[in-house]
């Protein structure tokens, strides 16, 4: 089927099998290899992208379901020499080791900070009527869909905290 996807503010026409996942469309048909295929079951978060401002696992959704949606991948968040705030913080805090999960972590954290600014509670948010305090437990809960096999979690949390506090 012929579809057009809006990837990183660019219209991308594609002719795909309707069963093609968004992840496979990005990697295999558009050359957007920053989004990683980890488990291919929606359990690790390496494939996280932002669709219409919300983070999703691109391995669990079909590309044809997202025609007309605004899709942002790690390539759309920043570029060499013009990194996003989170990308820069991940570099400063060494929020990656092997780097395989990093694109999903950064996309997820970007959307997570937007959710936090919009007042979305998490399962550990204590006060549902006020602003959520960005405790380690709050960050861990909100980022729980993204796994890091190298266990760089303390550095990931520090990078997220720096950006969140810098925005306050």
What do these coordinates show?
- With 168 residues, the chain is of the alpha+beta class.
- It is built from six helices and five strands.
- The relative contact order is 0.16.
Tell me briefly what this model is.
The chain has 168 residues and is an alpha+beta fold. The chain contains 6 helices and 5 strands; from the N terminus they run ββαβββααααα. The protein has helices spanning 22-30, 74-77, 85-92, 102-117, 136-142, 153-167; strands spanning 2-7, 10-15, 48-51, 54-57, 70-72.
Give the count of helical stretches: 6
Low-confidence stretches: none
What is the SS-derived class?
alpha+beta
- Listing every helix as H and every strand as E from the N terminus to the C terminus, the arrangement reads EEHEEEHHHHH
Spatially, the strands of the biggest sheet line up as 2-1-5-3-4
Mean pLDDT equals 94
What is the distance, rounded to the nearest whole angstrom, between the alpha carbons of the first and last residues? Answer: 45 Å
Name the CATH homologous superfamily of the largest domain.
[2Fe-2S]-binding domain
Which fold does the CATH topology of the largest domain refer to? Answer: DNA polymerase, domain 1
Helicity range: 25-40%
Number of domains: 2
The radius of gyration computed from the alpha-carbon positions, rounded to a whole number of angstroms, is 16 Å
Shape: globular
* Biggest pleated-sheet summary: 5 strands, mixed
Strand content: 5-15%
CATH hierarchy class name of the largest domain: Mainly Alpha
Under the CATH scheme, the architecture of the largest domain is Orthogonal Bundle
Number of strands: 5
Keywords: 2Fe-2S, Iron, Iron-sulfur, Metal-binding, Oxidoreductase
Protein name: (2Fe-2S)-binding protein
GO molecular function, one term: 2 iron, 2 sulfur cluster binding
